[in-house]
Amino acid sequence: MGFEGTKNSGACSSSHSLVDPTSPFLPPHPPAAPLSSQPKTFANVFIAIVGAGVLGLPYTFMRTGWAAGAALLAAVAVLTVHCMLLLVRTRRRLDLDRDFSKIASFGDLGLAVAGPSGRAAVDAMIVLSQTGFCVGYLIFISNTLAHLLQISSNLSPFLAPKALCIWAMLPFQLGLNSIKSLTLLAPLSIFADVVDLGAMGVVLGEDVVAFLAHRPPLRAVAGPSVLLYGAGVAIYAFEGIGMVLPLEAEAADKSKFGKTLGLSMFLIALLYGLFGVFGYLAFGDDTRDIITTNMGTGVVTVLVQLGLCINLFFTFPVMMHPVYEVVERWFCGKRYCAWLRWLLVVAVSLVAMLVPNFADFLSLVGSSVCVVLGFVLPAAFHLKVFGLELGWGGVAADTAIVALGIALAVSGTVSSLTGIFYSVQK
Q1: I need a surface site. Which of 199, 209, 276, 328 has the fewest CB within 10 A?
Q2: Closest CA to 125 of 107, 112, 108, 138
Q3: 80 near 302, Cβ under 8 Å?
């Protein structure tokens, strides 16, 4: 949602070069920006994490069972906080050792820890994750509009109801994504945050009413075969690791950043759990992959759905901005290139037309790139910088996270792709 537009525009791989600040050729430092208080840091973490993935949680709980889904959410939240703090500790150690503070982003950290290959790994994961988020946005918008407009079905994936909506949006997205500076679009993210929270409140209210009207049969735990699917969606929902270094750098009291981050993630996990459980309680086995399509056709419901679509539509170019930064650096020497941006927008749109299910796609992105970006790379970087100083327990913990992340990435990706191909063939 709009949250991710804010968060991931800062997830770009590298916005600052790693330069020795004692160089006499550097220009004078600009006045330092005011640092964030704990309440502001708390709010920024909340905004950076909560996104479109929450809309797929009720469907995920339907498939995994409400108890299994809640347990997966809690486990992913704890591991995500731990890996975020690993990045913070790694950056602090490098700043202390090298006596400069120019590690401003995840990509900068990758360059400092592992050289060009480290930056390339972060670059690749950021491009894949950001484009994955944007594909999810287009799927949500097009499915919602097709549901509201009752567009007739067509067998061709490029002429299906959601594809027609994507084709209609494409010229406008090409124009929006041609804008060099996204400053004019930035205020929309604040509006998006308010709409997102309001929409979640409306959906929760509708869930309670629906549950009280008819109480469908529920299951607490489904078979183990769907746990990988649930883990993928949960990881997607908590993805925000690209913003943890900028947020920590802006915190006024850095000694309390870990507690603030932990409290934020606890409340987000609680909100996610309630949203997923209540959505499943309300509709049971009839829960759809986008929970808003389970709601009625009242004026408030339609306005909420349209508001979410409008916000995601304008968040799309903000989300793509880190991709343009990386790709233009790769192919155009950091120069602006309109045709390359258009090519990427068209590619993302075509992928969105071919993906049949919103929640299945969330699981695929979460199981693949988000696992590597959120778990594997932070633990690997931490292990490389600290080494045996961690003690055997610390080394074992980092190694276990890397191994778990790789196992989840491989098995979860295979499982998600199998589910997507099965949906296509049905």
Answers
A1: 209
A2: 107
A3: no
Say whether pLDDT at 331 is over 60: yes
Question: CB atoms < 10 A from the CB of 365, how many?
Answer: 25
CA separation, residue 239 to residues 15, 48, 236, 271, 381 (Å): 20, 9, 5, 15, 18
CA atoms of 54 and 72, how far apart (whole Å): 14
Q: State the Cα–Cα distance between residues 151 and 165, nearest whole angstrom.
A: 9
In 3D, which of 309, 398, 412 has the Cα closest to residue 370?
412
d(CA 192, CA 3): 7
**CB 9, CB 319: distance < 8 Å:** yes
| 11-32 burial: b if 16+ Cβ within 10 Å, else e | bbbbeeebeeeeeeeeeeeeee
Kindly give the residue spans of alpha helices, DSSP state H, lying in 284-425.
299-331, 338-354, 358-365, 371, 377-386, 391-425
Q: How remote is the C-alpha of 1 from its chain's centroid?
A: 9
Is the distance from CB of 73 to CB of 276 less than 8 angstroms? yes
pLDDT of 177 > 60? The answer is yes
Residue 100 and residue 18: Cα distance in Å, rounded?
9
Q: pLDDT tier at 3 (50, 70, 90 boundaries)?
A: very low
Q: Which amino acid is at 162?
A: K
Which one, of 2, 72, 107, 136, lies nearest residue 273 by Cα? 72
Q: CB of 6 within 8 A of CB of 47? A: yes
Instruction: For residues 25 and 7, give the distance between their C-alpha atoms in angstroms, rounded to a whole number.
Output: 33
* For residue 293, pLDDT beyond 50: yes
Ordered by where they begin, the domains of the chain are 2-7+35-425 (1.20.1740.10)
Residue 300 identity (one-letter amino acid): V
| CB contact at 8 A, 244 and 265 | no
